[in-house]
Specification:
single chain, mainly beta, 8 helices, 48 strands, disordered N terminus
């Protein structure tokens, strides 16, 4: 986009609530209720492959007789996952819906010694155990204390495990983006951006969420979709290594998520909490799980709101109220020991205002948005014998984004916009998993069917945005009469050399009318994969192949080999890894129809001010990873990974002028490399800690080859895209006094994303007063203010510079090696709390007090980003949360 478009762009979407939103949510719930009834009427028609496993077995005495009433417990001291079961009359026990992870299993029974062993869950095929007890003195409980060896995993793909311990206690700025904040703070190599957006391993939004094995590749920031509610999640695994063959499309970060379940909970348990904080922010969360041996139900409800709902373009939040609601229901039913039925239902709604700039606030701009999300995912698994598992998982997901203009079009600046965007995904996945000996084989088919609908209208409302003529001093002429630049000379004016003639018919200040766009598309993708995890002594090998066939606005197909290896050096407790993946990345669906529009009915060509338009095609990528894990005595584990990604196209997003209408773009190629490092410390005398850090070098190469192009094609040289960040890290330290109070401290450092809209000081001088003020532009000790911009400065660099954007010294700017960036920032958060305030059993009262951005740092996520606009970091925020656990 050219600088005129970028300087006008302030991208953020907003919310408000009304009766119609509540009605729409009720409508979604009606659909979910109907689906639930259909599921139980015709259970054989549905199925799901859960991203979790089963541990079952029998407990025997020395003679081989069954031990009834023995207590079996599994624990993962890293994620905090813990479950307990009693053996039945035949000495059998079972744990289902167990997240993929290693576990300590302990068995206690009266008159016997306690027996312990390690169990690793990496497949949906049930793990069968026989536990023989020895005669001796029993202990009634076992406390599992994590050692560094417990944190060492020999899987060949780099990943990070996040469990309830972190999910429930880590403070988040806003519950509506709590999931994104957890991902950013817990995963190495992920850079934070505004409004819950994040850049995984140097990419724009290359993330897949796999919820109970339902793939969700839709973008999850606040302008696209409602995020998963934290109280619905049991645990998740952040996969940052080269992806195994079962994963496709969005693979830089795979978030393998296990939802909470009520199966086996004979006594109802749950949580009720309320939170209140700065900016009038509030949240209410409720969840309950109950069931029996054959069935279970987990229900979660939550709502939240704030007067600083989105990250605004100014340090003062203006017109920024928002709220959101979620209902989630997870139903399980086991008619036989071999069959399991499952159903996930959810409905979400958010309404929010679009934050204003000071100029927009003065005109009374009142733009708002609504996002409604619906998800239906039934499932079925059948076990053949003890080694072969069949799963089938259909799903339906809808994200419906609506943007509403102000009541008066001329309150909006520089354009008035109304938009509706629907993304329907109807799909199914079927898998066969086989586990025996040293092999864990998995193969399957996946079909995605997307139904896309996009429509909007747009009219220019700022007479200075695209003036036909200029005054003698070069300022815009606001006279609505001339619509032809050839008429300027007769009026004593000069023609605007930067005029976009295609916009003149849609300039409402010159008597134009609204431009209208509408399109619909039917897109399909069929995928098949086969992989085998092989254990050969100290080696673990994952080899596989995937095939993708994409049939959308463009077509693509590819065979994709995948391989990963790890070797465990037992003597030094070291794991060495290496992996390779060939990938086919289908185009982003959000704004795809607009980005691929051509011809008279589209926006391509000089008629609308664009240079050209090309349909968006799939990317093809080679990815290489190498890494290691190393224990540091009993004090922790270091996990490091280096990655290289070479893509035939480089994907990003752009906006239509200064509006929230977004569309994908493609560049000729991209080369992205970097590293991620994680240090994890087990609990030692009440202390536990982790630190994640990352670096990404995101080099893109022009020219632009897909999507709308609103200026002449850029040079073919390399440049850094705006999701390039040299370094970021998060350090989290927690201390808990026995089972009493706890304290958490978090330190986040970001070196700053690329900010290409301010390449030099002359560009900074051309900015408006508010824009200069937000970047901290100064001439010596004189700073730009809202009423006093800096129009000239005779002082040398760096006395003439900015405090929140690092503008390169004159003559040194280089799009590849020295681009402008957001300046580094340090953010500090702290919490104190207690899980059982009154020391009562079995009911607990919980209390947590938090302060985020303790130093009240004024900082930017980005500035006039082509896609993201300008977003400011939240100032100091106080929060108090009171809860009741039963």
């Amino acid at each position: 986009m050219n600088s005129a478009f970028r300087s006008y762009f302030h991208h953020s979407v907003s919310r408000f609530g009304n009766l119609e939103a509540v009605k729409s949510l009720h409508g979604s719930l009606a659909v979910l209720t109907f689906a639930a009834s259909l599921f139980f009427v015709v259970p054989s028609a549905f199925g799901q492959n859960l991203s979790s496993g089963t541990i079952r077995g029998s407990v025997l005495d020395p003679s081989g007789a069954a031990v009834k009433g023995a207590t079996v417990q599994i624990q993962n001291p890293v994620t905090g996952y813990s479950r307990t079961a009693q053996t039945d009359d035949q000495g059998n026990f079972e744990f289902i819906n167990v997240p993929y992870n290693p576990y300590h299993l302990s068995v206690t029974a009266a008159g016997f010694e306690t027996t312990q062993q390690d169990v690793e869950v990496r497949t949906a095929v049930p793990i069968e155990l026989k536990v023989s007890l020895k005669i001796g003195t029993a202990t009634t409980s076992v406390t599992v204390q994590a050692e560094a060896n417990d944190l060492l995993e020999t899987t060949p793909t780099a990943h990070t495990d996040v469990g309830q311990g972190l999910i429930q206690t880590l403070p988040v700025q806003n519950q509506s983006i709590g999931f994104a904040e957890l991902v950013t703070n817990a995963s190495p190599g992920v850079a934070a951006d505004g409004n819950g957006f994040y850049h995984p391993l140097g990419e724009h939004a290359d993330t897949s969420i796999v919820l109970d094995n339902q793939p969700i590749t839709d973008q999850q920031s606040k302008i696209f979709s409602n995020q998963l509610a934290l109280n619905t999640i049991q645990s998740f695994e952040l996969v940052t290594g080269a992806p195994p063959a079962e994963y496709g499309d969005r693979t830089s970060l795979i978030i393998n998520t296990t939802s909470r379940s009520g199966l086996g909970q004979t006594k109802p348990t749950g949580d009720l909490s309320a939170e209140y904080g700065s900016f009038g922010s509030w949240a209410e969360m409720f969840d309950i799980g109950w069931g029996g041996k054959r069935w279970g139900n987990f229900l979660a409800l939550d709502s939240n709101g704030s007067s600083r709902y989105l990250d605004p373009p100014e340090f003062t939040h203006l017109h920024d109220k928002g709220n959101g609601e979620t209902i989630f229901d997870h139903i399980d039913f086991r008619p036989t020991e071999q069959d399991t039925l499952h159903l996930n239902l959810s409905a979400q709604r958010s309404w929010f205002q679009q934050p204003n700039t000071f100029d927009q606030q003065a005109t009374g701009q009142d733009q708002r948005s609504q996002i409604r999300s619906t998800n239906i995912a039934p499932g079925y698994t059948h076990l053949f014998g003890s080694n072969l598992l069949l799963t089938f998982n259909p799903y339906y997901r809808l994200d419906w984004f609506q943007f509403f203009p102000s009541r008066d079009p001329f309150w909006d600046s520089p354009a008035t916009v109304q938009q509706g965007r629907r993304l329907n995904n109807i799909g199914a996945r079927a898998d066969l998993s086989y586990s025996r000996g040293r092999h864990e084989i998995k193969g399957g088919l996946q079909l995605n069917h997307w139904l896309l609908t996009e429509d909007f209208n747009l009219g220019i409302t700022d007479s200075t945005f695209n003036p036909v003529c200029l005054n003698s001093d070069g300022s815009p002429d606001t006279d609505p009469t001339p619509t032809d630049p050839n008429a300027c000379a007769a009026l004593g004016l000069q023609p605007n050399s930067s005029l976009l003639p295609g916009l003149v018919p849609y300039d409402l200040t010159r008597g134009g009318s609204l431009f209208t766009f509408g399109a619909h598309a039917d897109i399909k993708e069929l995928s098949a994969y086969l992989e085998d995890m092989i254990k050969l002594g100290n080696w673990t090998i994952n080899v596989g192949v995937r095939g993708d066939h994409y049939n959308g606005l463009t077509r693509a197909r590819q065979i994709e080999p995948r391989s990963a290896f790890s070797y465990h050096v037992s003597r030094t407790n070291t794991v060495l890894r290496a992996s390779y993946a060939r990938l086919l990345l289908a185009p982003f669906n959000e704004g795809l129809l607009l980005g691929s529009s051509t011809g008279a009915g589209g926006l391509g060509g000089a008629g609308f001010g664009g240079f050209g338009a090309s349909p968006i095609v799939s990317q093809r990528r080679n990815q290489f990873n190498t890494g290691f894990e190393q224990t540091l005595g009993r004090f922790g584990v270091v996990d490091g990974e280096y990655f290289w990604k070479f893509s035939s196209r480089g994907s990003d997003f752009d906006t239509l002028f200064s509006t929230p209408i977004v569309f994908p773009t493609l560049w000729r190629k991209s080369k992205i490399d970097g590293f991620g490092i994680r240090f994890s410390m087990p609990t030692i005398k009440g202390f536990t800690a982790y630190s994640v850090m990352g670096h990404a070098r995101s080099r893109y190469f022009g020219p632009e080859e897909g999507g709308l192009i609103f200026n002449s094609p850029l040079a073919a040289g390399a440049f850094r895209i705006d999701h390039d960040q040299a370094f970021q890290q998060t350090t989290n330290v927690r201390y808990q006094y026995k089972k009493g109070p706890y304290a958490i401290f978090t330190w986040r450092y970001d070196s700053g994303l690329v900010a290409g809209s301010v390449p030099d000081l002359d560009t900074a001088l051309a900015l408006g007063a508010a824009e200069q003020a937000v970047i901290g532009l100064h001439c010596g000790s004189t700073f730009a203010t809202l009423t006093s911009p800096i129009t000239s400065c005779n002082l040398p660099f760096p006395q003439f510079s900015a405090t929140r954007v690092r503008i390169p010294a004159p003559g040194t700017e280089n799009d590849d090696f020295n681009p402008p960036r957001i300046t580094p920032r340090h953010l500090f958060d702290a919490s104190i709390g207690v899980d059982n305030l009154f020391h009562t059993e079995p009911y607990h009262v919980t209390l947590k007090l938090s302060v985020l951005n303790i130093t009240n740092k004024e900082a930017l996520y980005n500035f006039l980003s082509t896609f993201s606009g300008t977003h400011t970091v939240a100032p100091r925020t106080w929060q108090a949360q009171l809860g009741f656990t039963f």
